Structures are given as C-alpha cells and as structure tokens.
Amino acid sequence: MTFFSIFFALLIEQLKPLRADNPVYAGARALAARLEASFNAGQAQHGRLAWGLMIAAFTVPVAVLYWITLKLGPLFVLLLNIAVVYLTLGFRHYSHFFTSIQLALNSGDEATARALLGEWIKRDTTGMEASEVARIAVERALVTTHRNVFGVFFWILTPLGPIGAVMYRVAEYLARIWNEPRTAEREEFGRFAAKAFYLIDWIPVRLTAAAFAVVGNFEDAIYAWRNFAGRWQDEAIGILLSTGGGAMGIRLGAPVENAADVIPVDATTVDSVNIETETPFGEEASSRALQSTVGLVWRALLLWMLLVLLLSIAKWLG
Questions:
Q1: pLDDT value, residue 312
Q2: What is the pLDDT of residue 182?
Q3: What predicted TM-score, i.e. pTM, was given to this entire model?
Q4: Cβ neighbours of residue 290 under 8 Å, at least 6 residues apart?
C-alpha cells in the first residue's frame, strides 16, 4: 500500500505540481513565525517548547486521521497516505529553476543562469562564472532532493507512516527557517530545531548517500564519503555532496566564504579549518554536470521505488 501511495502521489505531482504558496505551506510559515515571535526570548528552552508545539500542531491531526482511516479500511488509509505524500513531497518545487538554469547554460546565456540561481538560492550571484553557477545548482539540487523526497520516503516507510512524513518535513522546515538569518537570539532559539532535525535525518541522509553510490560510480562515491564528508561543518551536507559528487565524478565543495550559498542554513558552511575544500578528483562542474545530476536523481528515485515495492510485497506476504 505504501508503494501505491508514493507512486500515485508522484504521478499527481508530475501532472499537477503543488504550488509553493499553497494554503498548507502558508499556514506552516505563519504558525512558525507566530511561535517564534511569541516564544523567542533568546534562550534554548524556548526553542524546544516552540518546536514541540509546532510539531504537535501538524502531527496530532494527522495521527487522528490515520487512526480513523485504520478503522474505516485500507482504501481510506491509501487515500490519506497519497494526500500526505503529495503535500510533503517537493520533487517539482525546484525543478523549474534547475531546468531553466541548465537550458540557459547550454545556450551560453550565463547572465540568465546567474539570475535564475540568485532567485533560487536568494543570494547575490553577480560575477559568478558558469562553472560556479553549475556547481551551486548541482549542490542545491542534491540536498533539496534528499530533504524533499528521499527523507519523506524513509519516514513514511516507518511504523509512523504519514505521521512520520509530516514530522520530517515540519522538522526540516523549522531547522531551516529558525536558523536564518544569523542573530544571537535566533542562534539560541533555533539550536534545538537544528539538533532535532539532525537526529531525525541521521538515517535517511545515509540511505540517500548509499543510493547515490549504488546508482553512480560506487567506488569513487564511497571514497569521497569516507575521506571528504568531514570537510563540511554540517555532517549531512558533507555526506550528500561528497557522495553525490563522487558518484558523478564531479568536484563539489566551495571556498569557505561561499559555502553558505549552497543552502541558507548556518550549519551548512564548510569547516574553516580545511582550506582546500574541493574533492581532488572529478571534473569541474558544467552544464553537463546538471544533466548528470538529473540522471543520478532519477536512478536513485527508481532504486527507492524498487525497495519500497519489495518491502510492500514482503509485508503483504508476511
């Protein structure tokens, strides 16, 4: 049943992508902002309380609906799962930026590519070379795909089902929004959200990296994972980018002063102790790297779907 939930949700999203300004996301943004305004007094315990209230506000209603659908029958559980996966996935939220950047680079229109990247990552991209634009687009796509797709897959496969998927996406949003921009008050308030998401994402991020390695260049991916993931302050970002870059044979990583451009979260900066932050093997990122990223992501998605199908069959036979 989980396989069909994910399959139909992906199919619906391809036909009718969920808008980023939909009412559910708008409500989450409004509630997160209100909780921060009400609870943020510059202390970590206030962040813990606000985080718990935000998670409960979204997971408790889903838990009640899940309990009701279990009583009503498998069809209602399937419909609820499809709705939750559709709302929590973000496979198409960023693909238009990525595709447009790829087309612009292929046509030699670097100015348009820089403008699109700047709009996507909300950073100044003036003066960036084409290789840097391509590299940052690839890095952003790998991390976003994990957080918007594969992380959701993992948690909906757990016994928590749709509750886990909702918890994961809300926790990811809070870890991101409550740690940017960097102010003294927000640093303390958002500290718990970042730590909580690190724990929630610990297993999923490693499964995603393993999938990248399996469907890409396995040997280089594992080598990069073991030797270069620690060069990022954010362990999860390091694992994803080093493994993804190794799987595609592309040099990923950024100088310390530009590292925050990949994902606008404080913890994603590269370890300042390491001056040389690029992997020493692989090609420089180019428009071809974007095409390689598309292939890697789709192969990883097919691998995940195969695993979900096998687990669903095993559960049904059991």
A1: 80
A2: 64
A3: 0.88
A4: 98, 101, 102, 105, 134, 137, 138, 141
Q: What is the CA radius of gyration of the chain?
A: 20
Residue 278's φ and ψ, nearest 5 degrees, are: -90, 145
What is the Cα–Cα distance from 272 to 18, expressed in whole angstroms? 38
**Beta-ladder partners of 273:** none
How far is Cα 263 from Cα 260, in angstroms, rounded to an integer?
6
Q: What are phi and psi of 121, to 5 degrees?
A: -95, -5
Give Cβ neighbours of residue 57 (< 8 Å, ≥ 6 apart): 31
Amino acid found at 241? L
Q: Within 10 Å of residue 290's Cβ, how many Cβ atoms?
A: 24
Scanning the structure block, which residue is given the tokens 């399996």? 214
Q: Where are the domains of the chain?
A: 2-317
Closest C-alpha to 195, from 147, 234, 226: 234
Which residues are CB-contacts of 50 (< 8 A; sequence separation ≥ 6)? 35, 36, 38, 39, 40, 189
Per-residue pLDDT tens for 38-88? Answer: 998 878 889 999 999 999 999 999 999 999 999 999 999 999 999 999 999
Q: Which regions of 35-189 does DSSP assign to beta strands (E)?
A: none
* Residues in contact with 203: Cβ distance below 8 Å, sequence separation at least 6, in sequence order: 154
DSSP labels, 156-196:
HHSTTTHHHHHHHHHHHHHHHHTT-S--HHHHHHTHHHHHH
Dist CA 230 CA 239 (whole Å) = 8
What stretches in the chain show pLDDT beneath 50?
A: 255-279
Quickly tell me which residue has 């308030």 as its tokens. Answer: 189
How far is residue 2's CA from residue 120's CA, in Å, rounded to a whole number? 32
- Beta-bridge partners for 270: 232
